[in-house]
Each structure stands twice: as structure tokens, then as C-alpha cells.
Write the C-alpha cells for this entry.
Amino acid sequence: MPIGVYVCHCGLNIAGVLDMEELRTFAEKLPDVVVARDLQFSCSDIGQEQIQKDIAELKLDRVVVAACSPRLHEPTFRRAIYKAGLNPYMLEMANIREQCSWVHMDQPAMATQKAKDLIRMAVAKAALLTPLEPESIPVSKDVLAVGGGVAGIAAALDLADAGLHVFLVERRPTIGGYMALLTDVFPTNDCSICVLGPKMSEVFNHPDIALITYAEILGIEGSVGNFTVTGHRRARYVDEKLCKGCINECSAVCPVEVPSEYDFGIGKRKAIFVPYPQAVPLVACVDPKACIGCARCVEACPAKAVKLDQEAETFKLNVGAIVVATGWQPFDASRKEEFGFGRYRDVVTTLQMERMLNASGPTKGDVVRPSTGQIARSVAFLQCGGSRDATVGNIYCSRICCMASLKNAQLIKEKYPDTDVTIYYIDIRAAGESYEEFYVRAQKLGVNFVRARVSRIDQLDGDIYLIFEDTQSGEVKRVRYDLAVLSIGLEPDQNADVLGNLLGLSRRPDKFFEIAHPKMRPVEAHIDGVFIAGCASGPKEIPISIAQGSAAAAKAVRLLHSGELELEPTSAWVDPDLCVRCKLCMDVCPQKAISVKSPAYVDEAACKGCGSCTAACPADAIKMRLFSDEQIMAQVRAATEEKREFPLIVAFLCNWCSYGAADLAGTSRIQYPTNARNIRVMCSARVDPSFVLEALRRGADGVLIAGCRLGECHYRDGNYQALQRVNVLKEVLGKIGLDPGRVKIVWCAASEGEIYAKELREFIGELKAMGPIGSELKGSKKT
Amino acid sequence: MSFDLDEGFRQTVLQLAGSEVQTCIQCGTCSASCPTAHLMNPSIRKLIKLCLEGKKDEALMNDTIWLCTSCLLCTVRCPRGIRPKAVVSACKYLAEREGIKTKDAAYEQIFSKQIREYGRISELPLTGEFLLAYPQGMVQSMEMGLELVPKGKLGLGVERIQGREEVKRIMEELGK
């Protein structure tokens, strides 16, 4: 296996510190190396051409470039050797710039020594590289959107307009979500259903959207590109094709009246009903819990659409991606017992107020006291009902309630200028385009603001009283109102639990679905091919939900538009003969890519190549195609072949954060000692305890493992797994008489070059105090 | 922020009452829940603010901390999970440690002393001893007392319980 080694000067960036000729002659003598050259700029056309020429003339089958960080130019050199006919994965880089010449500028001799080790490690790894072929799999160009609220509607329309076929699955009999039930919406006070209604119809009429309402997802199998989804449509006891949506004929004869969930209990509906006049599909639905089976509706229906013997249907879909837009559910106001919701009739929630203000709602737009039916002459809004409240376990701010109350207060003031409208608030949160102006508008309309969190509501002789401390005057007051509106917050929809479990989505402490990165990947789930939009990932306003729906659609289009998916060949694979079916790999896999159907099986489309399973496998049955055990072990052995430094540290750095931090220390020219020999791994969880033990056995004085900061792992929780393994390792070291401090795990973000340097300096200091490896063993024998 | 911030005092209160006190948002739920809020100045909400600002004298030299009935409604309702009652207890403890004498603190002392000695309190000796130390309002108290005696609502002598030694031991263990 002829290997070519190219040592890059990078102008004076490397050559200004390191002895290039010494490195070149050193490399030349390494095993399997047939040519070693120093190049002025290896990434330049001239440099690349030299490498390509050698590949052709000397029949090189693998190449080592000792230059800058692989995070910078690995793609460049992979392309270069690919053009010369080599497999692009037959390349290894030694980082002698960011992690050597730039950080050891005043110790050229030691730096050159370190660079030699880095080149030796790269050559040792290169000898074990195998050609990898990126595999392409055909993918389904269909997409499943779950949830027909405004976010799901936005996603479905954008996807369908982009030419993908969409299945929009909605749990209720109509799409539209909560937005369809609101009255006017902030900050422009335009009518909610007037702007949403056309979109709902568009969904219904779009040739590329299959609308599946009154349905639930029951099973999901497969992975990105090829999910198999099963579910069932509940019986609505009305034939969708026959029903004309005339609304009244059937429900007019129905003798059963129950509180309407679409009016949040303040209005009524019949047992056979259309949720609201703008419902999509405009098809009646029988509530089997309320229906007494009198069949009057069957007779009354002119289209003969009512079918009381209808049964639930199952469906099966094959889709390439899934958009989760399952939305939210209102906080249950009766949990705040001190406000008396459910006991005092004149205490209502924001959503009930929305329905009252709605011209097509149960009161036809009148704001009334439910206890008397009279117009309310004084209305209090109580902010933070179930939000920012540790007593109900919701620490978070629900983000929309301040604006919703400001809006409803304005609407009341506009309709009834003499009504006393007061908002009780802790902080008014009006952060958004035109939101503060909206707050000012409410003030100018004469809405009162009292900075207080109401402690309780009392009812006396049919009147309700708020008890609160006006924190600006310090007075504790008791004030009577006709109507109190609890500004209830948003909680994740419990009905989405099934879907979340089927997909393996994780949840934040606030119980909303967690996105792949809290800032940089706002609509992606941890699971490939799954996107989250709208309130499923936290409370959001309408425009942001729409933006997220569109963003999720764009991500799904990007993923599926070509009809095939190229898989990074960096995945794990299982040797079925070695697998002992312990299922450890299944537990540690952040992608849920492994199933253990005797023996374990890795879905390579879902695998992201973190390598935690390989480190966890007690039988070494799971292997990595890149960053294999053998390759990393070879690097460890090469790093410890010649020990010319004390303390000698073998450092494992995760590709995403700590390797980036070490690179950044270089670009920032932060100087630190030369003791570490760095090995790049995809995740700190890749570090197999056997690597650490081998390094120490071969004379390394310490082993450093660096990962992303806790909670910021790019594979969700790999760094926690690494931490757990290091803790076990420390115990093992202690038992065999070595100082447990010889293995250390640290966290640094890619922006924390200074922290990486500091941690390394500290570790060097600690190891100096311990003395060379094994000195503690001699000490214990004496005593 | 106050310039005479007594960081040591602030830290001691946080140690005694819990570090979550720092997360107070001054919403007033505690004061509005408090059955004796109308008698208090500063209110419970303000007391927490004073502690966080390190205003030791203002936090310890007031009647508020002695008027707390320990009903714990503030603690049940606080949306931040703070225990305002624990702040009151911390202030009481620190006031005693500092030897701060207020009318209510003196009343508590006399009250505890009687429990320690007799195993219970007796109305007249308790009121009498307190009025000797703080004679304001003595006339009104005596007028009310004269009304109560004929109705048998005011015991005149000192009553003692059995097992006073037990009570004394309990009080000593509690450090009273």
C-alpha cells in the first residue's frame, strides 16, 4: 500500500515554526511511505496537481496531507484525490497548523517533535483506511404533515406547491386548529377566520394534498426517506362524499344538546354537528358519546349522507419526511383553584373570551356575564394564568397571552367605551414587530394597567372580587368585577405523546418537543427526516408558526426533491456473528437507528456516525466504517511510540465542538504547551475505554477527552454517555492502582479556544504533580 | 440598587431561606395572600426586596416579621416556588441573634418564658408583664380587662400544667 505524504509550508504559517526538511525526511522513513514531499501551498492548484501526478506515477493508493485542520481543507483534498482516481476516503490529514505551528510559536523544536508524532499517527491511520462508497437510496417524495393548525397548513401548502405530495393528518373533524376559533388577531386586529379560511379551502382543493381528518397516527416504522405510517380514521357516521355541508338540516332535528368544545364550553352544539360554518372539510360529524341513536338525522338529511353504521378505517402511507405540527392545548384553568374557574361562572378563560367576542360565536359578539347574561360593565384580565408559575410546574412564559389580552381589551373598549377594562400583569411582554405600538394603542383606548399578580378570586352574593397587591402603591386591594378573564397559557398537546413516542422525539423540561439545536436548527428534530413546526416546539404567535411551517416545508423539499438520498458512508454496521443481543447499542443510539431483532441491525440511512454504539458494545460487534476501532487504536499506538515529552497526553477531541475549539485556539494564536497528541473523533461518546487503557499502558501520562458543553452535544447526549464512561474508567484506574486523575473529561464549545487551552494547561499541571505514569505504583509498593 | 448593600446579610438570608429567593419577580402574590397584610409595613413582598438589597436594618427592625401567622399561604401560592415564610423566619432568627428589641419580639419572649415556666400561658400575667414593659395602650387594655373578668373570660391567677419539666425540656431543645 504505497502512501504519499505531503507536508505543507502554508507559506510561513507552518514553515515559520516547524523544520520542514526534518519533517519530510522523517515522513519518508515511515512504513509504507513511498514518497514524502514538502509543498509551498498544498491546497493551491500546483500543490494538488503534484499530489495527483504522484498518484498516477507512483501508483499511490492513499494520501496523507500534513497541513491545516481537516475541518478546513479535507473536502478540497478528497476532491483532488478523487479526480486522480482514488476513493475520496483514502485521505488522512495531520493538523500541524491550527493545532501545532500556530499554538507553539516559541517552541519550534518541541513543536517539530509533536508534528512528527501527528504525521506518524496520520500515516498509521491511513494504512488502515478502506475505500467507502457513498450509497444512494431512493426516497419517497411524499410528506406527512401531522396537525392541521396554521403551522401544518402552511407546511402542507408550501410542500404541495413545490411539487411534493402531502398527506395532512388532523385529529379533529376539521382543520384550522385554534386560529380558526379566534376572533380578531393581533397586532392588526384583522378577522382570524377571514385570513385563515381561504388557506383552509386551498388545502382542501389542492390536487397534491390528501386531507385525512378525524384521524390518528398509530404506527411509524422506517427512517428518513422511507417511513411507513399507519393510522386510523375514526368513524364520523356521515359519508364525506355525500354530505353537502348544509349545516342545519341534520342538527336542527337532533334532540341532544351538549357543550361545544369549539366554544370552550360556553356555547352548545348538537350530537350531530358541523364544528363551525367555515370548517374544512365542511362535513357533519356525529359525536358517539352524545348520540342517543334516534336516527332523526338519518331521515332529515336530504343527501342521505348520515350512516350510523359507518366504521373506522385504517390507512397506510409511505412518506420520505414527516412534519410534526401537533400544536398546543390550553392550560386547564381549574388547576388554579384560587381563581375559582369552574366554580364561579363569571370567571372565564381567554379562549372563552375569544368566542364571546367572535361575531359568529355563542353570544354573537357580546361580552356578557355568564351568570346573568347581562353585558359586562367591568372586565379584569389576569395575566400569567398557568404560565411563569412554579406551583403548576410551568416556569416558562407562554409568550402570546400579553398580546392576546391587550387585543381583547382593545376590542372590548372599542365596542363598549364605558366598560372598565383592567389588565393585571407582572410584566407586559410585547416584543415583536408593531407589538409595543399595540400596547400604546390599548393605553390610549383607556385600558387600565395594574402591576399585580392576583392572589385569589372570591365570590360573594353572586359578584366576584379580585384580591391583589398593587405593587406600585404597595396596597392590598379587593376589587369587584363583572367578569374576570384568566389569561391561560399554552401547554404541549397531550394527544401528540403517541406520535412523539413513535418517532422517538425528545422533550425539553417544559415538555414541548425539543429541536435539534436551540438556535441554529429551529425546525429540525433530532431524528433525520422529521421536522417540527409551530407550537409543538413551544408557544408561538401566528406569523412565527407560519414561518416555521414554511421553513419545515423547505427543509423537507431540500431533503426529498431529487428522489434519492446520498448516505454518508460513515455509519456503523454490525457483525451479526459477534452480536450478543444485549441491546446496549439500542439504548445509547441518539438517532434510534438501531433495532435489535436478533442480532442488532443498524439503519444506515438514519445513522449519523457518532460511534457511541461502537464504544458501548461489549462484544465489539458494532463497527464504524470511518473512525474504526483499528484506525483509532493505530493512532494511539503511533502517538505513544516515542515518548520524548513529559507529560505525554493523548487527547480525543469531538469533531463538532472541542476539535473546533482547538482549531480556534490556533487561529487566535493562543499559546500552550506541546504535550497533547490530538485524535479527532466524531463525538466524545466514540471514545472506547479500551483506547484510554491502551494509551496509558503504552506510556501516555494522561488521557484527555473533550466534548461539547453538556446539553449541547451534536448527537443529543453523547457527552453525557462519555462522562459516564469516564467515571467508570476512573474507578477502574483507582482499582489497579493508577491515579484516577490521569483520565480527564472537559467540555468546550467551538467558540472556546481559550477554555480548551486553559483546560489543557491545567491538566498538564496536574499530571506534572502526579509524576510519570506508573510512579504511583512504585510508591504504593514501598509503603 | 442600594449603596449600603450588606452582602453578608443578603447571603445569610439566602442560605437560611433558599437561593430561589433571588428569583423573586415582586409580583405581590405573597402580600395579597397574607391574612395579616393590612397590619404589615413593609409587606412581605417588600421584605423580600429589602433582604435582596441587603438592607439589614430595615428588614429586621419592623413589626412585619412578628405579625406573620405562619399560615403559609404565601408559600403555597408563590409562582416562583419561593418560600416567603422562610424569609420571615430567617429575619426573625437574625433579629434575635442581633438582639433587636421590638414590641412584638418582646411579646414573643414573654410568651415563651411563660410556656417554659408554667407549661402554658395565663392571660393576666402575660398581659400584665407585657404592659409593664410597653405601657402604651395600658388604659384601653385595662378597660377591656375589667369587662372580661366578670364574664369569666380572663383568668386572674397563674395556672400551671402537669409535666412542666417535659415542656421545659422541649423548649430548651428548641433553643428558646
In short: The mean pLDDT of chain A is 95. The first strand of chain A starts at residue 3 and ends at 8. Chain A is about 30% helix and 25% strand. Chain A has six domains: 1-132, 136-234+312-327+493-564, 235-310, 329-491, 568-623, 627-783.
